[in-house]
Specification:
By secondary structure, the chain is an alpha/beta fold. It has 13 helices and eleven strands.
Protein backbone atom coordinates (compact mmCIF):
# COMPACT_ATOMS: atom_id res chain seq x y z
CA UNK A 1 0.00 0.00 0.00
CA UNK A 2 1.34 3.43 -1.00
CA UNK A 3 1.90 5.85 1.85
CA UNK A 4 2.97 9.49 1.91
CA UNK A 5 5.98 11.02 3.62
CA UNK A 6 3.86 13.97 4.70
CA UNK A 7 1.77 11.57 6.76
CA UNK A 8 4.57 10.52 9.10
CA UNK A 9 6.90 12.41 11.44
CA UNK A 10 10.62 12.27 10.69
CA UNK A 11 11.36 10.42 13.94
CA UNK A 12 8.87 7.72 13.01
CA UNK A 13 10.09 7.37 9.42
CA UNK A 14 13.74 7.30 10.47
CA UNK A 15 13.11 4.34 12.80
CA UNK A 16 11.57 2.18 10.08
CA UNK A 17 13.42 -0.63 8.30
CA UNK A 18 14.14 -0.20 4.56
CA UNK A 19 11.24 -2.55 3.77
CA UNK A 20 8.92 -0.44 5.92
CA UNK A 21 10.16 2.79 4.33
CA UNK A 22 9.68 1.62 0.74
CA UNK A 23 5.89 2.26 0.49
CA UNK A 24 6.56 5.91 1.35
CA UNK A 25 8.90 6.25 -1.64
CA UNK A 26 6.47 5.10 -4.32
CA UNK A 27 3.47 6.70 -5.94
CA UNK A 28 1.26 4.95 -8.53
CA UNK A 29 3.86 2.23 -8.82
CA UNK A 30 6.69 4.65 -9.63
CA UNK A 31 9.61 5.72 -7.45
CA UNK A 32 9.19 9.23 -6.06
CA UNK A 33 12.51 9.23 -4.22
CA UNK A 34 15.43 6.83 -4.77
CA UNK A 35 17.20 6.51 -1.43
CA UNK A 36 18.50 2.97 -0.94
CA UNK A 37 18.97 -0.19 -2.96
CA UNK A 38 16.53 -2.34 -1.02
CA UNK A 39 13.55 -0.34 -2.26
CA UNK A 40 13.79 -2.16 -5.62
CA UNK A 41 12.38 -5.64 -6.18
CA UNK A 42 13.07 -8.18 -8.92
CA UNK A 43 10.25 -7.00 -11.16
CA UNK A 44 11.46 -3.41 -10.99
CA UNK A 45 15.06 -4.43 -11.69
CA UNK A 46 14.02 -6.42 -14.74
CA UNK A 47 11.86 -3.54 -15.98
CA UNK A 48 14.59 -0.92 -15.50
CA UNK A 49 17.17 -3.14 -17.20
CA UNK A 50 14.91 -3.67 -20.20
CA UNK A 51 14.17 0.06 -20.41
CA UNK A 52 17.88 0.95 -20.18
CA UNK A 53 18.59 -1.35 -23.12
CA UNK A 54 15.81 0.28 -25.13
CA UNK A 55 17.21 3.75 -24.38
CA UNK A 56 20.65 2.52 -25.43
CA UNK A 57 19.34 1.28 -28.79
CA UNK A 58 17.20 4.33 -29.47
CA UNK A 59 20.17 6.64 -28.78
CA UNK A 60 22.17 5.06 -31.62
CA UNK A 61 20.37 7.13 -34.29
CA UNK A 62 19.87 10.84 -34.83
CA UNK A 63 16.10 10.45 -34.94
CA UNK A 64 16.22 8.35 -31.78
CA UNK A 65 18.24 10.97 -29.92
CA UNK A 66 15.82 13.67 -31.04
CA UNK A 67 12.96 11.59 -29.61
CA UNK A 68 14.74 11.07 -26.30
CA UNK A 69 15.66 14.75 -25.97
CA UNK A 70 12.02 15.62 -26.47
CA UNK A 71 10.87 13.62 -23.44
CA UNK A 72 11.76 16.02 -20.58
CA UNK A 73 12.84 19.40 -22.02
CA UNK A 74 10.49 21.12 -19.56
CA UNK A 75 12.22 19.61 -16.51
CA UNK A 76 15.24 20.96 -14.65
CA UNK A 77 17.66 18.91 -12.53
CA UNK A 78 20.11 20.02 -9.84
CA UNK A 79 23.24 17.90 -9.49
CA UNK A 80 24.28 18.66 -5.91
CA UNK A 81 27.58 16.87 -5.39
CA UNK A 82 29.19 18.10 -2.19
CA UNK A 83 31.38 14.98 -2.21
CA UNK A 84 33.93 14.55 -5.05
CA UNK A 85 32.80 12.45 -7.99
CA UNK A 86 33.72 11.84 -11.61
CA UNK A 87 31.78 8.88 -13.01
CA UNK A 88 28.56 9.28 -11.03
CA UNK A 89 28.39 13.00 -11.79
CA UNK A 90 29.15 12.61 -15.50
CA UNK A 91 26.76 9.70 -16.00
CA UNK A 92 23.91 11.58 -14.32
CA UNK A 93 24.76 14.68 -16.33
CA UNK A 94 24.77 12.70 -19.58
CA UNK A 95 21.60 10.79 -18.67
CA UNK A 96 19.76 14.07 -18.07
CA UNK A 97 21.09 15.52 -21.34
CA UNK A 98 19.88 12.42 -23.20
CA UNK A 99 16.37 13.13 -21.87
CA UNK A 100 16.56 16.84 -22.77
CA UNK A 101 16.64 18.18 -19.21
CA UNK A 102 18.21 21.50 -18.21
CA UNK A 103 21.02 20.99 -15.71
CA UNK A 104 22.30 23.02 -12.78
CA UNK A 105 25.19 21.95 -10.58
CA UNK A 106 26.93 22.64 -7.30
CA UNK A 107 30.09 20.59 -6.84
CA UNK A 108 31.88 22.61 -4.20
CA UNK A 109 30.20 24.04 -1.12
CA UNK A 110 32.76 26.87 -1.21
CA UNK A 111 30.92 28.22 -4.26
CA UNK A 112 27.51 28.17 -2.57
CA UNK A 113 25.97 29.90 0.43
CA UNK A 114 27.16 27.01 2.59
CA UNK A 115 30.45 28.93 2.57
CA UNK A 116 28.57 31.62 4.50
CA UNK A 117 27.15 29.13 6.97
CA UNK A 118 23.95 28.03 5.25
CA UNK A 119 22.83 24.58 6.37
CA UNK A 120 22.65 21.63 3.98
CA UNK A 121 18.90 21.50 4.54
CA UNK A 122 18.45 25.12 3.56
CA UNK A 123 20.62 24.60 0.48
CA UNK A 124 18.51 21.68 -0.71
CA UNK A 125 15.26 23.55 -0.03
CA UNK A 126 16.64 26.42 -2.08
CA UNK A 127 17.38 24.06 -4.99
CA UNK A 128 13.82 22.73 -4.82
CA UNK A 129 12.53 26.23 -5.61
CA UNK A 130 14.23 26.19 -9.02
CA UNK A 131 14.52 22.54 -10.03
CA UNK A 132 12.21 19.57 -10.59
CA UNK A 133 14.67 16.87 -9.47
CA UNK A 134 17.62 16.90 -7.08
CA UNK A 135 20.41 14.36 -7.45
CA UNK A 136 22.58 14.60 -4.35
CA UNK A 137 25.87 13.06 -3.26
CA UNK A 138 27.14 13.69 0.25
CA UNK A 139 29.67 12.39 2.71
CA UNK A 140 26.90 12.59 5.32
CA UNK A 141 25.11 9.29 5.74
CA UNK A 142 21.33 9.52 5.72
CA UNK A 143 21.19 13.09 4.42
CA UNK A 144 19.29 12.13 1.25
CA UNK A 145 16.62 10.37 3.32
CA UNK A 146 16.27 13.37 5.61
CA UNK A 147 15.90 15.75 2.67
CA UNK A 148 13.39 13.51 0.91
CA UNK A 149 11.23 13.70 4.03
CA UNK A 150 11.75 17.47 4.40
CA UNK A 151 10.80 18.25 0.78
CA UNK A 152 7.81 15.93 0.92
CA UNK A 153 6.50 18.09 3.75
CA UNK A 154 6.72 21.35 1.78
CA UNK A 155 4.55 22.84 -0.95
CA UNK A 156 7.15 21.73 -3.52
CA UNK A 157 7.82 17.99 -2.96
CA UNK A 158 10.67 17.56 -5.46
CA UNK A 159 12.05 14.02 -6.00
CA UNK A 160 15.47 13.17 -4.56
CA UNK A 161 17.90 10.64 -5.98
CA UNK A 162 20.66 9.52 -3.65
CA UNK A 163 23.90 9.50 -5.64
CA UNK A 164 25.95 8.28 -2.68
CA UNK A 165 25.53 9.01 1.03
CA UNK A 166 28.35 8.50 3.50
CA UNK A 167 29.44 4.88 3.84
CA UNK A 168 25.90 3.53 3.80
CA UNK A 169 24.18 3.68 0.39
CA UNK A 170 24.80 4.16 -3.34
CA UNK A 171 21.60 2.80 -4.92
CA UNK A 172 22.11 3.90 -8.53
CA UNK A 173 25.61 2.38 -8.57
CA UNK A 174 23.97 -0.88 -7.51
CA UNK A 175 21.43 -0.48 -10.32
CA UNK A 176 24.15 -0.12 -12.94
CA UNK A 177 26.01 -3.06 -11.40
CA UNK A 178 22.88 -5.21 -11.66
CA UNK A 179 22.33 -4.01 -15.22
CA UNK A 180 25.92 -5.00 -16.06
CA UNK A 181 25.31 -8.47 -14.61
CA UNK A 182 22.03 -8.73 -16.52
CA UNK A 183 23.80 -7.94 -19.79
CA UNK A 184 26.77 -10.17 -19.01
CA UNK A 185 24.64 -13.24 -18.19
CA UNK A 186 21.65 -12.68 -20.48
CA UNK A 187 22.67 -15.70 -22.61
CA UNK A 188 23.76 -17.80 -19.64
CA UNK A 189 20.60 -18.09 -17.57
CA UNK A 190 20.68 -14.63 -16.04
CA UNK A 191 21.92 -13.74 -12.56
CA UNK A 192 20.12 -16.59 -10.79
CA UNK A 193 22.46 -19.30 -9.50
CA UNK A 194 25.64 -17.28 -9.92
CA UNK A 195 28.50 -16.81 -7.45
CA UNK A 196 29.50 -13.18 -6.89
CA UNK A 197 32.86 -12.56 -5.18
CA UNK A 198 33.52 -9.17 -3.58
CA UNK A 199 37.17 -8.23 -3.02
CA UNK A 200 38.89 -5.45 -1.08
CA UNK A 201 37.55 -2.78 1.26
CA UNK A 202 34.16 -4.28 2.03
CA UNK A 203 33.72 -2.69 5.45
CA UNK A 204 33.44 0.82 4.02
CA UNK A 205 32.32 0.15 0.46
CA UNK A 206 28.81 1.55 0.01
CA UNK A 207 28.74 0.10 -3.53
CA UNK A 208 29.27 -3.39 -2.07
CA UNK A 209 26.59 -2.90 0.56
CA UNK A 210 24.07 -1.72 -2.02
CA UNK A 211 24.82 -4.45 -4.58
CA UNK A 212 24.78 -7.18 -1.93
CA UNK A 213 21.30 -5.98 -1.03
CA UNK A 214 20.00 -5.98 -4.62
CA UNK A 215 21.37 -9.47 -5.24
CA UNK A 216 18.99 -10.85 -2.62
CA UNK A 217 16.27 -10.45 -5.26
CA UNK A 218 17.77 -13.32 -7.27
CA UNK A 219 17.52 -17.06 -6.70
CA UNK A 220 20.41 -19.18 -5.41
CA UNK A 221 23.03 -16.43 -5.70
CA UNK A 222 26.02 -17.08 -3.47
CA UNK A 223 27.89 -14.04 -2.19
CA UNK A 224 31.54 -14.38 -1.16
CA UNK A 225 33.35 -11.62 0.71
CA UNK A 226 37.14 -11.74 0.50
CA UNK A 227 39.13 -9.17 2.45
CA UNK A 228 41.73 -8.74 5.17
CA UNK A 229 40.03 -8.88 8.55
CA UNK A 230 39.96 -5.09 9.22
CA UNK A 231 38.22 -4.51 5.87
CA UNK A 232 35.75 -7.42 5.97
CA UNK A 233 32.03 -6.86 5.38
CA UNK A 234 29.98 -5.64 8.34
CA UNK A 235 27.61 -7.65 10.53
CA UNK A 236 24.65 -5.53 9.42
CA UNK A 237 25.05 -6.73 5.82
CA UNK A 238 25.50 -10.33 6.94
CA UNK A 239 22.39 -10.07 9.09
CA UNK A 240 20.45 -8.81 6.07
CA UNK A 241 21.70 -11.77 4.01
CA UNK A 242 20.80 -14.27 6.73
CA UNK A 243 17.31 -12.80 7.00
CA UNK A 244 16.90 -13.19 3.24
CA UNK A 245 18.16 -16.79 3.33
CA UNK A 246 21.17 -15.99 1.15
CA UNK A 247 24.21 -18.27 1.12
CA UNK A 248 27.42 -16.38 1.82
CA UNK A 249 31.06 -17.04 2.66
CA UNK A 250 33.76 -15.00 4.38
CA UNK A 251 37.41 -15.47 3.47
CA UNK A 252 40.79 -13.78 3.36
CA UNK A 253 42.07 -16.06 0.55
CA UNK A 254 41.66 -14.31 -2.80
CA UNK A 255 43.46 -16.96 -4.85
CA UNK A 256 41.13 -19.78 -3.83
CA UNK A 257 38.00 -17.70 -4.52
CA UNK A 258 38.76 -16.97 -8.17
CA UNK A 259 37.94 -20.36 -9.82
CA UNK A 260 34.38 -20.49 -8.42
CA UNK A 261 33.50 -16.89 -9.31
CA UNK A 262 31.00 -15.97 -12.01
CA UNK A 263 31.65 -12.32 -11.24
CA UNK A 264 34.51 -10.72 -9.34
CA UNK A 265 33.76 -7.28 -7.92
CA UNK A 266 37.01 -5.51 -7.09
CA UNK A 267 37.15 -2.46 -4.82
CA UNK A 268 39.81 0.01 -3.75
CA UNK A 269 40.83 0.80 -0.18
CA UNK A 270 38.64 3.75 0.82
CA UNK A 271 41.12 5.59 2.99
CA UNK A 272 39.08 8.79 2.87
CA UNK A 273 37.07 7.23 5.72
CA UNK A 274 40.13 6.59 7.94
CA UNK A 275 39.51 7.84 11.47
CA UNK A 276 43.19 8.72 11.52
CA UNK A 277 44.95 9.57 8.29
CA UNK A 278 47.17 6.73 7.15
CA UNK A 279 45.46 3.94 9.11
CA UNK A 280 44.57 2.01 5.94
CA UNK A 281 48.17 2.13 4.79
CA UNK A 282 49.07 -0.22 7.62
CA UNK A 283 46.91 -3.00 6.14
CA UNK A 284 48.61 -5.37 3.70
CA UNK A 285 46.41 -5.46 0.59
CA UNK A 286 49.01 -6.86 -1.79
CA UNK A 287 47.21 -10.25 -1.86
CA UNK A 288 43.95 -8.63 -2.97
CA UNK A 289 44.98 -7.32 -6.38
CA UNK A 290 43.89 -8.84 -9.71
CA UNK A 291 46.75 -9.39 -12.16
CA UNK A 292 47.16 -10.93 -15.60
CA UNK A 293 48.32 -14.12 -13.90
CA UNK A 294 44.88 -14.54 -12.33
CA UNK A 295 43.09 -14.66 -15.70
CA UNK A 296 44.03 -18.31 -16.21
CA UNK A 297 42.16 -19.23 -13.00
CA UNK A 298 38.99 -17.37 -14.01
CA UNK A 299 36.03 -19.09 -15.69
CA UNK A 300 35.72 -18.57 -19.44
CA UNK A 301 32.45 -16.66 -19.09
CA UNK A 302 33.08 -14.93 -15.77
CA UNK A 303 33.30 -11.14 -15.55
CA UNK A 304 35.52 -8.72 -13.64
CA UNK A 305 33.85 -5.56 -12.31
CA UNK A 306 34.96 -2.44 -10.47
CA UNK A 307 32.97 0.67 -9.40
CA UNK A 308 36.08 2.87 -9.90
CA UNK A 309 38.21 4.79 -9.25
CA UNK A 310 40.88 2.13 -9.21
CA UNK A 311 44.37 2.30 -7.83
CA UNK A 312 46.48 -0.86 -7.89
CA UNK A 313 43.78 -3.47 -7.25
CA UNK A 314 43.41 -4.30 -10.98
CA UNK A 315 46.38 -4.21 -13.30
CA UNK A 316 45.73 -2.15 -16.46
CA UNK A 317 47.11 -5.14 -18.37
CA UNK A 318 43.85 -6.93 -17.55
CA UNK A 319 41.77 -4.31 -19.40
CA UNK A 320 42.08 -6.01 -22.79
CA UNK A 321 40.59 -9.30 -21.60
CA UNK A 322 36.93 -9.60 -22.74
CA UNK A 323 35.96 -10.63 -19.23
CA UNK A 324 37.01 -7.23 -17.91
CA UNK A 325 33.66 -5.43 -18.18
CA UNK A 326 34.32 -2.46 -15.89
CA UNK A 327 34.48 0.06 -18.74
CA UNK A 328 31.12 -1.23 -20.01
CA UNK A 329 29.92 -1.15 -16.41
CA UNK A 330 30.81 2.54 -16.27
CA UNK A 331 28.96 3.34 -19.52
CA UNK A 332 25.95 1.38 -18.29
CA UNK A 333 25.55 4.04 -15.62
CA UNK A 334 24.16 6.65 -17.99
CA UNK A 335 21.69 4.18 -19.55
CA UNK A 336 20.24 2.86 -16.28
CA UNK A 337 20.11 6.35 -14.78
CA UNK A 338 18.32 7.67 -17.86
CA UNK A 339 15.85 4.78 -17.53
CA UNK A 340 15.35 5.55 -13.84
CA UNK A 341 14.71 9.27 -14.39
CA UNK A 342 12.35 8.52 -17.29
CA UNK A 343 10.44 6.18 -14.99
CA UNK A 344 10.21 8.75 -12.19
CA UNK A 345 8.71 11.26 -14.64
CA UNK A 346 6.34 8.76 -16.29
CA UNK A 347 8.10 8.63 -19.66
CA UNK A 348 8.95 4.92 -19.66
CA UNK A 349 5.86 3.87 -21.59
CA UNK A 350 6.64 6.41 -24.33
CA UNK A 351 10.11 4.92 -24.67
CA UNK A 352 8.70 1.40 -24.88
CA UNK A 353 6.18 2.39 -27.54
CA UNK A 354 8.85 4.15 -29.62
CA UNK A 355 11.16 1.17 -29.35
CA UNK A 356 8.33 -1.21 -30.26
CA UNK A 357 7.35 0.77 -33.35
CA UNK A 358 10.93 1.34 -34.49
CA UNK A 359 12.70 -1.94 -33.83
CA UNK A 360 9.96 -4.60 -33.90
Amino acid sequence: MTRRLDEIAWEGFNKLTPAEKTPYLVENGRPVHVLFARQFDRLQLDSLGELATQVRFIAKTEDGMAFLRGLLPHKRVMLYFSQPSTRTFLSFCTACEILGMSIGEVRDSATSSEFKGESREDSVRTFSSYFDLIVMRSEIGGLAERMAWVLSNTDRPVPIINAGSGKDQHPTQALLDIYTLQRSFEERGGIDGKTIVFIGDLARGRTVRSLASLLTNYKDVKQCFVAPRPLQIGDDVLGMLRAAGVEYELSDDFESAIPAADAIYMTRVQDEWDSRKGDSGKIDISRYCFTVGHLAKLKKHAVIMHPFPRRTEISPDVDCDPRAVYWRQMRNGMWIRAALIATIFDRDDQIRRYHQSTYN
